[in-house]
Amino acid sequence: PEAGTGQRDGSLGDLFIPSGAPGTGRCRRAGHGWTDLGSDPLWPLLSSLSRPRHPQDNFGYDLPAVEAAMKKHEAIEADVSSYEERIQGVAELALALEAEGYYDVRRISAQKGSILRQWGLLTELVGARRARLEQSLALQTIFQEMVYMIDWMEEMQAPLLSREVGKHLLEVEDLLQKHTLLEADVAAQSERVQALNQAALKFCELEGRCGPGPGPNDSRCPDLTPEPSAAPGAG
């Protein structure tokens, strides 16, 4: 029985730390496989993710930067996910040791509880960080669309501010036709502008400013709703 439990202790270490990884030999020592599980790279990751960063998460100040942060987070998720089967194996082997009356069962049970609690915390932190990243990604997508719309409106101002009225009938008719097209273009963008404005306001209401964590300056998050003085036909 002692030999069997010693081999099982070694299996616990093998499950948690890949063969050849630093600390593998320590984890294979009978009765000490659980103590050295803390040397696994999973726990520094837990420590890193558990540092209080919200709402100062630095995911970037533009869409490409946030997209890059999301890709890095997906790599973290993949790393964490790769441990799930080994965590389950550790828990199952601990239960087996408890059932067999292993001489150090109290320490094994305590370590199992600690590992499962930390695993639960780690997965919770990863999920919470993804939620904040998704929110930041949505904000930057909206912000980029707003910048596009502002650029478009600035381009539209040039023909609308033109004082050219035509010198003869054909020229006037041509200008009227062009203006009709401009009106149709503006009308087509109206719903888009309103939707962007409402989406941006939701972020401002949630955070008291434009978005979670580092984001665009407030001066670059304008209300896209035209002022009454800018309405067509205003004197």
TrEMBL record:
Record keywords: Actin-binding, Repeat
One GO molecular-function entry: actin binding
Recorded superkingdom: Eukaryota
Positions of the UniProt region annotated as Disordered: 1-21, 212-235
Gene3D superfamilies listed in its UniProt record: 1.20.58.60
InterPro entries tied to this protein: Spectrin/alpha-actinin (IPR018159), Spectrin_repeat (IPR002017)
Record Pfam families: Spectrin (PF00435)
Record PANTHER family: SPECTRIN/FILAMIN RELATED CYTOSKELETAL PROTEIN
Name of the protein in question: Spectrin beta chain, non-erythrocytic 4-like
Organism, as annotated: Chelydra serpentina
